[in-house]
Specification:
The chain is of the alpha/beta class. The protein has 15 helices and 10 strands. The chain has helices at residues 2-15, 34-43, 46-49, 62-71, 81-89, 134-147, 151-154, 162-170, 181-189, 201-204, 220-225, 227-244, 255-258, 263-275, 283-305, and strands spanning 22-29, 52-59, 76-80, 94-100, 104-108, 124-128, 156-160, 176-180, 193-197, 214-219. Helix 2 packs across helix 12, helix 6 (134-147) packs across helix 15 and helix 9 (181-189) packs antiparallel against helix 14. It is globular.
Length: 322
């Protein structure tokens, strides 16, 4: 009888269609490091293992990501929380979930006479992003604290995309370069020297905890109504990170994304990626985020903050804490 019942259950299971997995549409930039993680997640079917379906939507740039999220054509993008605070002040109820601590670095040629931020005065400095880039504002704050130097007026600035600036740096058209960590790694492999690690700046400015500047950003109403999907996605994402950072992890399949050409480059990318995984995110970290926001606001002003001179208290999704 038990065998008959089990057989009937099996037949019923075949007859009743399985409930479709909930999907989450991720707006991704072609050059973003988050692509490395999502590629791993999908290649190993970690989304299916957690009962969801990840749908990557490739977007052209940061502005395109913002439009896609606010317009509802994607469910989540990766960007920074100061932008979320600004958008909240404009009436867009967005929330932030931390993703990475990694930011960038200032590089100079190995034989450069530049050995301090003060030595940048009068030099040609490439800056990845724009005038309101958070790493640039933090670097300005550090130069003022250390040397009383206003980098904004002291250097010859060139803003641009990381690949173009890397080419200019290699060609000798720049004396120093502030760029994202993944763009800095290949240059360091060529012998360029790190002058400043942006991730270390907040501590020198009086911020105690390591704060992830970038993370997943969603519309609060969508996140609240799809809380189980969000939780499952974050669990799948954590599994992908664990596999990428496991001892002996094979990063060769990511070569098309990382542009790595040898094991040394792969190891450099792996170490940088894994070092960026946040270790803690609680009340203390959120309080320090407000301190960083105040530093950025003092330099970026309304162009950065909009109508939110202080960090909006609803910026961070309260369901995530570790």
């Amino acid at each position: 009888m038990r065998a008959l019942v089990l057989g009937m259950v099996a037949l019923l299971a075949l007859a009743v269609p399985a409930r479709a997995a909930e999907s989450i549409r991720l707006g991704l930039l072609a050059f973003g490091t988050v692509q490395w993680e999502i590629e791993t997640l999908r290649a190993e079917a970690l989304d299916a293992a957690h009962g969801i379906r990840v749908e990557p939507v490739e977007l052209a740039g940061k502005d395109g990501s913002a439009v896609a999220l606010l317009g509802g054509s994607v469910d989540a993008i990766v960007t920074d929380w100061p932008w979320v605070s600004r958008q909240r002040g404009m009436g867009h109820d967005l929330v932030f979930v931390p993703w990475s601590l990694m930011t960038g670095a200032v590089l100079v040629p190995a034989d450069s006479p530049i050995h301090s931020l003060a030595d940048l005065a009068g030099r040609r400095l490439g800056i990845a992003g724009g005038p309101l880039d958070k790493s640039w504002l933090l670097l300005r704050a550090l130069a003022t604290k250390r040397h009383g130097l206003d980098l904004d007026t002291a250097v010859e600035k060139t803003f641009g995309a990381p690949p173009l600036l890397s080419q200019q740096m290699t060609a000798g058209r720049l004396d120093a370069l502030l760029t994202y960590w993944q763009a800095a790694a290949p240059l360091e492999a060529k012998g360029f020297r790190r002058l400043v690690d942006v991730a270390s700046i907040p501590a020198e400015l009086g911020v105690t905890h390591a704060i992830p500047m970038v993370g997943w950003v969603m519309r609060r109403d969508w996140a609240a109504s799809h809380a189980a999907t969000v939780t499952a996605f974050l669990a799948a994402e954590n599994d992908a990170r664990s596999r990428l950072c496991a001892e002996g992890a094979d990063w060769r399949r990511l070569d098309l994304l990382t542009k790595a050409a040898d094991d040394a480059s792969r190891d450099r990318f792996r170490r940088g990626f894994c070092a960026g995984i946040p270790k803690a995110w609680g009340a203390s970290e959120r309080a320090d985020a407000a301190r960083i926001y105040a530093i950025l606001a003092a330099l970026g002003g309304p162009d950065l903050t909009g109508s939110s001179p202080g960090l909006d208290p609803g910026t961070f999704w309260p369901e995530v804490s570790y």
